[in-house]
């Protein structure tokens, strides 16, 4: 199943796992899946004991019929990978295309080769395109081809792992109508307990006419059975185009008509034209995002693999987002978390800001649901975004590590702040960003309070920080620090809005019932925010109680007891000093200019030995912070763990989907860690370092309408302003001025 994840394809709307066209090999476990981003079905959550405000329904990413099915039979034998004479499969990163070459021999000695390619179109998001070339090597005769839309696939996962998730077509889709013709087939489904209608349409094209055609029509499968004549030494090419389309508003008839038009147009355009357009979109992404590592092929492979999957899975329509597993598997039921805003948008904001903007637009479209959730949680004003969701409702059934993570609001504010710093997109802030920022900011005043017992400092009780091994605490440092930054940015944007467009600002304030006195209280709360600090240890305390707990007995915890969440009751974990992932350390990265180097080093030295890194979100943050504090060997070790996380299946669960936040973290480790890049309000800064293992590395940035390429080598750092107006940036203590089209080299001696 691991390869089925690694070879998955997606385009932001549809994703399909890297399973074989002929289906799974006998006696081998397989996990089929084709998914639509932003389309979901709801299931009522069953609790043993329920209380007010618990999430009522879980939303699950919708599976749709598998259209990849192209089965071949020769001499009554099914042609598959298990019986191949030789075979190879590879994912072409540059073109986002999956290929397979296979030679096969029947029991009677007839040999043929089968080459297949497929891609999820980056220019036609409803389309999945397949091409199969069949060559009879030592015979002439007929071969059987079965092409299906399969709505009957199933999978039984490990139900003891809460991260896995369970998706089922039987539980989620109700068949409305289906049809199979000589070359086309379609199925219409209604999502159970939901408004979504889904059309799945396929069409076949072949370079030779079939000698015989019959239709396949079962309750959960429709398609064609063809007899194709083969001539020795001559290739036959079969193309299959599958369109998936959904709607809440359209009738089934209109939905089907639109999908049929798209597959007919795809057939007329043909494979070459569609693949050329698709490749151009992939090329544009690589022009903006590629990272080159000179001196380590394994890590070069890892970073490009990670970047490709981020690009393929991220929502691109403003109505969807990015699941923790992308569109590669059913892990976490396809839910969106804070992973998008803290990790994935860090990459996209700096390389493809339009994609970052689309994800922020999704958050804006679900703002009303966040307002309703805030009321449900007894907040009279503001908005509380759900910890895990697809359609905008809270789906977390375990509130200590779900709803209690109020820092989701700060994550969205951080993404807004980062996006604006990188793009200066004032129009977006006017139309969407400011409203999200203000509505999420006002929630902190309802959640926290000015504590007279702490000299009037602003305290926040009953929350969970990023470290999910410590839950429901008072004054989680990360939460408080991020809330402070959130409130400060909201105050700054209110002042800017008031100055630049007073009329629009006043209209927004009226609509939100927002007053100047409330904004003034935001400023006071930020100024008086309580940030726990231990004077004896000279470190920031993770929360009010963390340092008083007994440290976890790591020495007597065997390796097979990790991750702890699968082997110990949450209460056992909560009683100890032990971290699942970066918490204070993450705050140091996101708010890097509010800590000095000595403080960062002390915090890191205390918390890293207590961290299990059971979450794949953790290693990258530690890599960045070790790099920032000068321990480049530790930084490299954590980076290596991050960049190869899925290819090497380091956490043993990649078969359920890739780890998208970790993938983003591998880019962050290079650009923000080794290169020391920061996009601050006062400009762009770079503090580069070259790992001893490398000859050099190169990466690209988008910054306020400019495209910049940076090369770090053993003797110099080179800059090229590829597009945009001249720019000055800060490298170490030196100011560097860039002009368009001119390479500028700065020797290490001048750093």
Automatic annotation (TrEMBL):
Family: Belongs to the glycosyl hydrolase 65 family.
Keywords: Glycosyltransferase, Hydrolase, Transferase
Annotated Glycoside hydrolase family 65 N-terminal domain residues: 3-247
Domain Glycoside hydrolase family 65 central catalytic, residue spans: 304-668
An MF annotation (GO) of this entry: hydrolase activity
Domain Glycoside hydrolase family 65 C-terminal positions: 678-736
Organism: Bowmanella yangjiangensis
This protein's record includes keyword Glycosyltransferase: yes
Name of the protein in its database record: Glycoside hydrolase family 65 protein
């Amino acid at each position: 199943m691991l390869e089925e994840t690694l070879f998955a394809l997606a385009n932001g709307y549809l994703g399909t796992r890297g399973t074989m066209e002929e289906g799974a090999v006998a006696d081998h476990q397989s996990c089929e899946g084709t998914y639509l981003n932003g389309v979901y079905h709801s299931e009522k959550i069953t609790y043993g004991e329920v209380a007010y405000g618990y999430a009522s329904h879980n939303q699950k990413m919708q599976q749709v019929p598998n259209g990849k099915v192209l089965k071949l039979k020769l001499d009554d034998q099914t042609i598959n990978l298990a019986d191949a004479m030789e075979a190879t499969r590879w994912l072409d990163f540059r073109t986002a295309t999956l290929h397979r070459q296979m030679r096969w021999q029947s029991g009677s000695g007839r040999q043929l080769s089968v080459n297949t390619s497929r891609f999820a179109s980056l220019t036609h998001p409803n389309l999945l395109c397949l091409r199969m070339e069949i060559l009879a090597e030592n015979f002439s005769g007929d071969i059987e081809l079965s092409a299906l839309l399969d709505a009957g696939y199933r999978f039984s996962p490990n139900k003891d792992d809460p991260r896995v998730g369970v998706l089922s077509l039987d539980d989620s889709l109700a068949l409305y109508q289906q049809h199979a013709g000589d070359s086309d087939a379609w199925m219409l489904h209604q999502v159970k307990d939901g408004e979504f209608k889904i059309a799945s349409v396929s069409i076949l094209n072949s370079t030779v006419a079939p000698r015989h055609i019959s239709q396949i029509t079962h309750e959960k499968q429709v398609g064609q059975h063809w007899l194709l004549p083969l001539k020795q030494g001559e290739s036959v090419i079969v193309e299959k185009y599958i369109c998936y389309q959904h709607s809440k508003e359209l009738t089934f008839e209109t939905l089907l008509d639109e999908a049929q038009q798209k597959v007919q147009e795809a057939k007329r355009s043909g494979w070459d034209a569609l693949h050329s357009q698709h490749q151009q979109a992939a090329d544009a992404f690589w022009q903006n995002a590629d990272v080159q590592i000179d001196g380590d092929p394994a890590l070069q492979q890892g970073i490009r693999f990670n970047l490709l999957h981020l690009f393929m899975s991220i929502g691109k329509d403003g109505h969807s987002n990015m699941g923790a597993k992308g569109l590669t598997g059913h892990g976490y039921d396809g839910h969106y978390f804070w992973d998008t805003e803290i990790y994935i948008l860090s990459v996209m904001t700096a390389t493809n800001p339009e994609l970052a903007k689309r994800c922020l637009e999704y958050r804006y479209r679900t703002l009303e649901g966040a307002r309703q959730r805030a009321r449900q949680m007894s907040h009279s004003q503001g908005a509380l975004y759900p910890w895990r969701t697809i359609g905008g409702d809270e789906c977390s059934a375990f509130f200590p590590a779900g709803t209690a993570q109020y820092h989701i609001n700060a994550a969205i504010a951080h993404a807004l702040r980062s996006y604006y710093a990188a793009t200066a997109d004032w129009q977006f802030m006017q139309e969407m960003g400011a409203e999200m920022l203000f509505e999420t900011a006002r929630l902190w005043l309802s959640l926290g309070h000015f504590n007279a017992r702490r000299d009037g400092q602003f305290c926040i009780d009953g929350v969970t920080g990023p470290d999910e091994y410590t839950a429901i605490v008072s004054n989680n440092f990360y939460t408080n620090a991020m809330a402070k930054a959130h409130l400060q940015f909201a105050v700054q944007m209110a002042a800017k809005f008031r100055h630049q467009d007073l009329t629009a600002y006043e209209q927004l304030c009226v609509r939100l019932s927002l007053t100047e006195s409330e904004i003034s209280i935001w400023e006071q709360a930020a100024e008086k925010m309580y940030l726990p600090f231990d004077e004896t240890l000279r470190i920031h305390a993770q929360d009010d109680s963390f340092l008083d707990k007994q440290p976890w007995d790591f020495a007597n915890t065997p390796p097979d007891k990790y991750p702890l969440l699968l082997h110990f009751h949450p209460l056992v974990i909560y009683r100890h000093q032990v971290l699942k992932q970066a918490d204070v350390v993450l705050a140091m990265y996101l708010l890097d200019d509010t800590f000095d180097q000595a403080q960062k080093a002390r915090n890191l030295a205390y918390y890293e030995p207590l961290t299990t890194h059971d979450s794949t979100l953790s290693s990258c943050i530690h890599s960045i912070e070790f790099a920032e504090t000068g321990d480049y060997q530790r930084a490299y070790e954590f980076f290596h763990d991050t960049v190869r996380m899925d290819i090497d299946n380091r956490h043993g669960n990649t078969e359920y989907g890739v780890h998208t936040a970790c993938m983003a973290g591998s880019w962050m480790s290079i650009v923000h860690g080794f290169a020391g890049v920061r996009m601050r309000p006062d400009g762009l800064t770079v503090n580069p370092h070259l790992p001893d293992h490398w000859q050099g590395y190169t990466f690209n940035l988008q910054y306020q309408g400019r495209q910049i390429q940076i090369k770090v080598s053993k003797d110099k750092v080179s800059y090229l302003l590829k597009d945009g107006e001249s720019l000055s940036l800060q490298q170490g203590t030196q100011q560097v001025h860039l002009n368009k089209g001119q390479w500028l080299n700065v020797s290490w001696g001048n750093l």
